Input
Amino acid sequence: MTTTAEPVALRDAPVLDIDPYAIEVLLDPYPFHEALREAGPVAYIAPHGIYAVGRHAEAKTVLADHARFTNAGGIGIQDIRKPGEFRIPSRLLEADPPDHTKIRSVVTRLLSPLVIRRWKEGFERKAESLVEQLLAQREFDGVEDCAERFVLEAFPAAVGVRLPRTETLAIGEMRFNQSGPRNALYERAMQTAQPYLAWFEQSVSRQGVIPDSIAELLFRAEDAGELDEGIASNVVRSFVGGGTDSTIAGIGFTLHQLAKNPAQWERVRNEPAKVKAAFEEGIRHETPFQVTYRTTHGETELSGVRLAPDTKIGVFMGAANRDPRQFPEPERFDVDRPALAGSHVALGNGIHACIGQMLARQESEALIGALSRRVARMELTAPASYRPINQMRTLDRLPMRIVPA
Output
């Protein structure tokens, strides 16, 4: 006798009348994150007409399933395919296979073990030099004087793009506010970045990149026909966007927690393997890229929730990385959490996982490692403050003091 399974009845997404882009939410997103997780596997965010996920399991699914949740509409809240919303897409991030596969395979090939080894050596030299200077100062800002200073010196040498601080930070804030709604943050960031747009276009052009760098190798790949015309500059632009601000934020979060938790700093100092774990826990605990978007490919479902077609769905990675279903005591910073690198979604998941993640990890390992060998104690001299940005969470100020070992 054959029995036919009863179809599973789908339910509509619960509605949350919370604006995740309100300034007070950006500065303290954790009450919203909890409300999102507890509402269900998917919620509908009424102020913006979008779906959102905040649980870890659903976040990984949406990030990895490009057949149902496409990147082609853009990773911001706007659908860049629609009139009035168009902007030039990132050909690395805002594309699905097969176009994405071709580009990513070329980039991956260029990031050879030899290249990565050279990065590591260069980062370590720069980190040692910076820590020497910070020890002479004793008191400094952990964002501007440490994380920003290191990344904006180390990154250009590795990738091949010159990045002066004022221009780079203005362009970064524009990009990450541009991924949100057209609110006051969006408008202010666009205005601030306006004087630097021509500089940025020049810096990521064939004439602007540093010779014999990864950036120039991308242009050579374009010359050889491995990439279509215009792709090299587009990919270099994505490297800058994804490889500076987020790494600065991640290092800042890690320093913040290590300064607040002396026992955790002792674990890192006494066990060098914990240097890597500290950064992984730092970006899990406070995730730089708070949200990224996909668009439903048609009517579909997720964990029993019916989803309308052609609708944006926000993956709130900051919420997923504090999901107690995945991480016990998620609010606690703990460098001893097991298998962090493979479980958090701070660097994405699936085929669109951050292609520069090895760069971010090596930069953080070099800097935190140099500090662990030379610094006995880190402490805050005043409370840290945050800078509101639509897509990102990042520290604005981190006043701190270090004591030499």
